[in-house]
Design brief:
With 458 residues, the protein is α/β, with parallel strands linked by helices. It folds into 2 domains: 254 residues, Aldehyde Dehydrogenase, Chain A, domain 1; 181 residues, 3-Layer(aba) Sandwich (Aldehyde Dehydrogenase, Chain A, domain 2). The protein has a 7-stranded mixed beta sheet with strand order 12-13-14-11-10-15-16, sandwiched between helices. 42% of the residues lie in helices and 19% in strands. This is NADP-dependent succinic semialdehyde dehydrogenase. GO terms for molecular function: succinate-semialdehyde dehydrogenase (NAD+) activity. Belongs to the aldehyde dehydrogenase family. Keywords: NADP, Oxidoreductase.
């Protein structure tokens, strides 16, 4: 993929960028390594001041950044503004809480280990490589950068090639805010250049948000180098609706859960698993609401769903739907590629999906929802877990026993009851199975890239 801004609304390439050469890659890695000592030596208070200054810059540039997001990936502008605001909040969260999250922890009775004092402390590990996707071009990068920098680590960002302007903005953000030179930098390199960086001995660890194949590739390199990784990969999240639920409310939230970022979110609900007693009611309400969404220019405030970010992504989504249609699935809404410029695909609702169809197991990265009819809670769990993914999940029920059952039985990194999956700085985020390893956000996220050092004193 060329390093370029291609407007998904028009399909027109607006700006292209040259990849940096090997000499510049080396210069940036060396600058990052040189920044480790001054950043480690800084205090939490100093880093918090710089992080708040970076959040201030993000907010001051908010309108410009929201438009940039929309032009580079096609997201509706109101949602782009929300991403910018979420970034600033997340940065301030870590500025406030990093010191307490990483405070030393001492045994109350060290004599149990034959010591006068014993416990643990968290220390930064050095330079961390972040390989980030395009779908939340600022939030994905900053939810790594904020905790990493507040812990005293240095960050290098290899961003997706279709959001180069976002990468270049982040390249200078933290130095503008006061962090030592080299504390954070972007590498405009193709995906083929990641292995060279990852194998550099000055790189201590890596984090990747993206596809399962990309995660497997990075993990294999990290394993051979004995380097720690955090991986947040794909998801095909279930959204379960039981008879005790408020079905109308569930259908309304289901639309937002499926179409956030025009459906291009790892944690978007994708498989709607509905008890037979309320299946028809839910399907009708859900389909009506999906059909009513406004699809169009993402810079228009009234637009609900914009184009998909890439032509290949749109084509892959259309192929999934066509495969299901050819094998007998019922298309309640949408399902036809529009004849217009840009990479649009309509909100689509499909039922009657069987294991023979690709949509049964593959992630639909766009505004396409599959609805399943199940007989009871046991079948709902079986269908929900019948995938290699396990990122997050949602369950709608007003029965406390059912709630407890689903919270325990769903194989996922999160369960949201009577709501839709979202990420919050206060809560850990990540998945199980092929959806990844490790956690981002909360105290768990900042501790991922720290050395947990044991201290024992006689």
């Amino acid at each position: 993929m060329p390093i370029a801004t291609t407007n998904p609304t028009t399909g027109i390439v607006e700006r292209t960028f040259d990849a940096i050469d090997e000499a510049e890659v080396e210069r940036r890695i060396a600058a990052a390594a040189a920044a480790v000592a001054p950043l480690t030596a800084s205090t939490f208070a100093e880093r918090a001041g710089w992080m708040r200054a970076a959040a201030d810059l993000i907010e001051a540039d908010g309108d410009e950044l929201a438009r940039l997001i929309t032009v580079e990936i096609g997201r509706p502008i109101a949602q782009s503004r929300a991403e910018v605001g979420k970034c600033a909040r997340g940065m301030r969260f870590y500025a406030e809480h990093a010191e307490s999250f990483l405070a030393p922890e001492w045994l109350s009775d060290p004599s149990s280990v034959g010591a006068s004092a014993a416990g643990t402390r968290y220390e930064p590990i050095g330079v961390v490589l972040a390989v980030m996707p395009w779908n939340y071009p600022f939030w994905q990068a900053l939810r790594f950068a904020a905790p990493a920098l507040m812990a005293g680590n240095v960050g290098l960002l290899k961003h997706a090639s279709n959001v180069p302007q976002a990468a270049l903005y982040l390249d200078t953000l933290f130095e503008r805010a006061g962090f030592p030179a080299g504390s954070f930098a972007s590498l405009l390199i193709p995906a083929s250049g990641v292995e060279r960086v990852m194998r550099d001995p000055r790189i201590a660890a890596a984090t990747l948000t993206g596809s399962e194949p990309a995660g497997r590739s990075l993990a294999a390199i990290a394993g051979s180098e004995i380097k720690h990784v955090v991986l947040e990969l794909g998801g095909s999240d279930p959204f379960v609706v039981m008879p005790s639920a408020d079905v109308a409310a569930a259908a309304a939230v289901a639309v937002r859960a499926r179409t956030q970022n025009s459906g291009q979110s790892c944690i978007a609900a994708k498989r709607f698993i509905v008890h037979a007693d309320v299946h028809d009611e839910f399907l009708a309400a859900f389909s009506e609401r999906m059909a009513a969404l406004s699809v169009g220019d993402p810079l228009d405030e009234a637009t609900d769903v914009g184009p998909l970010a890439t032509e290949s992504g749109r084509d892959e989504l259309a192929d999934l739907v066509d495969d299901a249609r050819q094998q007998g699935a019922d298309i309640a809404v949408g399902g036809t590629r529009p004849d217009r410029p840009g990479w649009f695909y309509p909100p689509t609702v499909i039922s009657g999906v069987t294991p023979a169809m690709r949509l049964y197991a593959e992630e639909a990265f766009g505004p396409v929802a599959t609805v399943f009819r199940v007989a009871d809670a046991a079948e709902a769990v079986a269908v929900a877990n019948a995938t290699t993914f396990g990122l997050s999940s949602a369950v709608w029920t007003n029965d406390s026993a059912e709630e407890d059952h689903f919270v325990r039985a769903l194989a996922a990194g999160g369960v949201f009851v009577n709501g839709m999956t979202a990420s919050y700085p206060e809560l850990p985020f990540g998945g199980v199975k092929a959806s990844g390893v490790g956690r981002e956000l909360s105290a768990a996220g900042i501790r991922e890239f720290c050395n947990l050092k044991t201290v024992w004193k006689s």
